[in-house]
Amino acid sequence: xxxxxxxxxxxxxxxxxxxxxxxxxxxxxxxxxxxxxxxxxxxxxxxxxxxxxxxxxxxxxxxxxxxxxxxxxxxxxxxxxxxxxxxxxxxxxxxxxxxxxxxxxxxxxxxxxxxxxxxxxxxxxxxxxxxxxxxxxxxxxxxxxxxxxxxxxxxxxxxxxxxxxxxxxxxxxxxxxxxxxxxxxxxxxxxxxxxxxxxxxxxxxxxxxxxxxxxxxxxxxxxxxxxxxxxxxxxxxxxxxxxxxxxxxxxxxxxxxxxxxxxxxxxxxxxxxxxxxxxxxxxxxxxxxxxxxxxxxxxxxxxxxxxxxxxxxxxxxxxxxxxxxxxxxxxxxxxxxxxxxxxxxxxxxxxxxxxxxxxxxxxxxxxxxxxxxxxxxxxxxxxxxxxxxxxxxxxxxxxxxxxxxxxxxxxxxxxxxxxxxxxxxxxxxxxxxxxxxxxxxxxxxxxxxxxxxxxxxxxxxxxxxxxxxxxxxxxxxxxxxxxxxxxxxxxxxxxxxxxxxxxxxxxxxxxxxxxxxxxxxxxxxxxxxxxxxxxxxxxxxxxxxxxxxxxxxxxxxxxxxxxxxxxxxxxxxxxxxxxxxxxxxxxxxxxxxxxxxxxxxxxxxxxxxxxxxxxxxxxxxxxxxxxxxxxxxxxxxxxxxxxxxxxxxxxxxxxxxxxxxxxxxxxxxxxxxxxxxxxxxxxxxxxxxxxxxxxxxxxxxxxxxxxxxxxxxxxxxxxxxxxxxxxxxxxxxxxxxxxxxxxxxxxxxxxxxxxxxxxxxxxxxxxxxxxxxxxxxxxxxxxxxxxxxxxxxxxxxxxxxxxxxxxxxxxxxxxxxxxxxxxxxxxxxxxxxxxxxxxxxxxxxxx
Amino acid sequence: xxxxxxxxxxxxxxxxxxxxxxxxxxxxxxxxxxxxxxxxxxxxxxxxxxxxxxxxxxxxxxxxxxxxxxxxxxxxxxxxxxxxxxxxxxxxxxxxxxxxxxxxxxxxxxxxxxxxxxxxxxxxxxxxxxxxxxxxxxxxxxxxxxxxxxxxxxxxxxxxxxxxxxxxxxxxxxxxxxxxxxxxxxxxxxxxxxxxxxxxxxxxxxxxxxxxxxxxxxxxxxxxxxxxxxxxxxxxxxxxxxxxxxxxxxxxxxxxxxxxxxxxxxxxxxxxxxxxxxx
Lengths: 847, 279
What we know:
The structure holds two protein chains of two kinds.
Chain A: H1 2-14, E1 33-36, E2 54-63, E3 69-73, H2 80-91, E4 94-96, E5 98-99, E6 105-106, E7 108-117, E8 124-132, E9 143-147, E10 153-157, E11 163-167, E12 172-180, E13 183-192, E14 198-204, E15 233-236, H3 237-240, E16 260-261, E17 271-272, E18 281-284, E19 287-289, E20 307-313, E21 328-333, E22 342-348, E23 351-359, E24 364-373, H4 375-385, E25 390-405, E26 411-429, E27 432-454, E28 457-474, E29 478-495, E30 503-520, E31 528-547, E32 550-563, E33 567-581, E34 586-597, H5 601-604, E35 617-628, E36 634-650, E37 675-693, E38 696-710, E39 718-719, E40 726-736, E41 740-749, E42 753-754, E43 757-763, E44 769-773, E45 779-780, E46 784-796, E47 801-808, E48 817-819, E49 832-833, E50 839-846
Parallel strand pairs in A: 8-14, 18-21
Antiparallel strand pairs in A: 1-4, 2-3, 2-7, 5-6, 8-11, 9-10, 9-12, 12-13, 15-20, 16-17, 18-19, 20-21, 22-23, 22-50, 23-24, 24-25, 25-26, 26-27, 27-28, 28-29, 29-30, 30-31, 31-32, 32-33, 33-34, 34-35, 35-36, 36-37, 37-38, 38-39, 38-40, 40-41, 41-46, 42-45, 43-44, 46-47, 47-50, 48-49
Chain B: H1 15-21, E1 28-35, E2 38-39, E3 45-52, E4 60-66, E5 68-69, E6 74-75, H2 76-80, E7 87-91, E8 98-103, H3 111-118, E9 127-133, H4 139-146, H5 151-155, H6 157-161, E10 169-175, E11 177-178, E12 191-194, E13 200-202, E14 207-215, E15 222-227, E16 231-232, E17 237-238, E18 243-247, E19 254-263, E20 269-278
Parallel strand pairs in B: 2-11, 13-20
Antiparallel strand pairs in B: 1-3, 3-8, 4-7, 4-9, 5-6, 9-10, 12-14, 14-18, 15-17, 15-19, 16-18, 19-20
């Protein structure tokens, strides 16, 4: 059919050469004039073409006195393959009538020659663009059907720019139809007239309910290749934004994956494989982030639409990553120039934001996003009415990026990030409302990044600078302050492994800057204040070898930290990752290695009663995993892990610290000096069963684990603050017709352990009771059970679309205990339970 | 340790919480008064430890002083007395609900303390501790008798209470005001006079307002109510004329005691004790 279309167009562009010859009947004074001749159907190659490829068909045409065609005939010696198309064209011709001597129109018979040229393209009839309704996006490579008045069907395919054409169509009503491949069936009536090109914009709604077998516009969920690291799970953010239980936060989705314990009160803190949130790290494209979430877990510090993918590594990360003991998330920003602008404005119960990603030139793009919370506005009235002297938290973030992608794929990027969190606890001083406690957390980053292909290698150079500030003002006199101004540099060369050559990764990871700290809170220890430059270079390298079905990647990372004239510490971390592909379905992954975290300035400097002899904390991580991919879109992973920590830095627990956990500390407080006497043992297993199908995405995640700590040799072992022996998550989301989407998440987790109050004593003047905790975490909160629900509905208009969402956490209304707490006399255990179900409505307009 | 503040702190003190915090359900020290409240280090005082005993089990009481020194929080008294830190004992009098134990805060000369006091300023670094236990429950009393008291336990309440149950054991502490001021100008303990008839008797489930007059008080003070039957609707009220509402339990036929402790904020403390009857 496509060949016929092309042939027809060829003939029309040439233009049928036709002319009026000597009339047959009584000659009028003026002859009919050919005003228009429709396109002639060009016969196929099986027609008896002459060598010239041109056939002139002489037709006898009787023209009425009003110009209409009364009859057309052709000589019998013309082959039918050429005779009929010429007759059809003549019948559609438009002629002015002949006129007699008085000027009156008269009928006449003329000879009309219709030239049929095999090589000439037909004239354009319909020219159009296939667009996605509700946006500026074009729909490339989709087929458009044109059905003519005689039922004749032609097909065109939209090109990469969404353009399609039909040429040489017969006059009359045609119907354009599009459908399938994720597009809602749509049709458009077009009236074709010879000599006129109809220009149309065909807008079609993308509707997942009309997904065909091919994924079409859907994002491939899993990478086709898994890196040597044991279990890196990548989540595309278009999917992550609609998963239930996370208010659309793309990084919080990680909490639903195996290996992550449930954080209290729905916050986003990542408690990975039995380690505290501060033991794990967050990155943006490999650049360290001082914090991943606003206020320890309300929302990720980066706008979700800026993010292309969230990589989550629960353990045994590669040598590229360092300076941590647990796991990591790497927030990967979009690395491609968009073909068309994308804009979005979002508002929900807690925050509002805007996002723009637009091409700036043929090779570059600009991305801008900003968000601000207004939970303070929403909640403050309720808090004031109840006399609660708290200013609800306020957070904001801004990102701006310029990206250039060269023809050779070289990516150059300039990125700016800024995040700001504030929180106040109000009081009255001298009759005026004044913040008694004022917490302020902020950071910014400016990063230049170059990623280019050099031979077999991918070269990355990334330079980032920024300032991280945390400050606490208490009662106007006491305060705490930490500020780090630093530069990070990553220079890396990477070549993936192949059967004919080794893989290689070598790099420099430098972190250097100046840290200032001040702790002037007499209730929490003596004055500490100091400033120091620091230099933390790291070198890393790994080699990958493919030996048949076995891929082995040994590597080594060396880290150093220097506080000039004060202290030095270093570490050397060998790591090994292996993968054995039994066949295309089964694979075994084994990894082992050490991970070190160097002491912080405060822990080593004399100005803070530090210990300059401290060594790097160390974690020896080991894991064995089985991966099964039985069918497309189905994946099973079973992983066992056993981690041992030593040289953990303990001490000075009575001093003030800026950290996200523990939210609540029960148990004895170690107020001794900093020392490397702490150890930890963590072991467990993880199961992931996942399905990705056009009509359903979901998984079942199960984690069993045990995490224990010992603060010093000879001391009793205690359970980790967030030890959760069992974590079960079942999650699923499904697209429904008319752009609805429904998702739900069920979770069951063990309660967190805590040290019970063994006794208490009382200050007989202030009347306050002081608890005496058991030295061991011998009690455990009741288990957690919750059901979350999310519903999305997208309304698609011609030039924009509106998505409404409803996200309800803990719709089961079960009052799950979240944190241990007692009454004021410590005679009764009264745990803090979770918030009641709060329906979070969201609106997003995008175009 | 102060952790990063939980962003939305729902700090709500509900009425039930207040009611429960004023209830005494087991042996508990309700007041530690020093008679006189301000004293020179070498003068003898009576430490009057008032103890609520709702189960009528009786209580033995030990008192001692500790002036914390050094990083380890040792008591100066332990070193000053060559490890034989003074500690005195007594027994709760069921009639007065108290044990009045004579004590000399610091019977030895300590140059640093004397320097403060002799300059005309009071010294508040010395703490008085009182431990009340159901008879036979606390090993400290056996240690006192045997002369084998561990001074670390006297310096660290957590060590002292380790292994002891909450029920039947109560430990309290307060600051002592050591001064060289003329006794005529020293603070006195306040006096508390009820402005209602006693005993307090109400029907089950009902409440009664109790007003007091507090005299002999330096500055403004605060009254703290406690009871072994029912509870109070407020945890405290300002002196000199505190008004407190006692709420009887729903179940009648109960009797107990009401304790109102007044602390003037200048080392003066007194307690009023009255019978409560729920019909």
